[in-house]
Amino acid sequence: MGLLKLRKNKKFNYTPRYYDDKGEGNPYEIKHKFDEFRKTVGPNKGLKTKFNNALDDFKNNPDKEANRRILIIAAVLVLVFLFIIDFDLSIFFSK
Q1: How many Cα atoms sit within 13 Å of 48 on the Cβ side?
Q2: Are the CB atoms for 39 and 55 separated by under 8 Å?
Q3: C-alpha pair distances (Å), 38 with each of 54, 58, 75, 82
Q4: Are 39 and 53 in contact (CB under 8 A)?
Q5: Mean pLDDT, residues 58-80
Q6: pLDDT at position 1 over 60
Q7: What is the pLDDT of residues 2-18, one digit of tens each?
Q8: What pLDDT does residue 41 have?
Q9: Alpha carbon 25 to chain centroid distance?
């Protein structure tokens, strides 16, 4: 009576009303506007490959001002964190 067989899902051949066959790709595919310009977006790879791709994108970014801004923001956040945990910054300075 079909106890061991799984039921198959029904398949429908649906095409949207205003979708032309000459269009680019799947109309239901959701992708970001800048995905084609990034190396870091794509299939899941190893952690080392992701990190290397992110560094390459950071180094080859034509907008150097954005890179500088990111570094300044990161430095300020690290200093705020060290201030919150009451870290003694005098170890970095000589007497």
Answers
A1: 0
A2: no
A3: 9, 11, 25, 33
A4: yes
A5: 86
A6: no
A7: 677 888 888 887 766 76
A8: 67
A9: 22
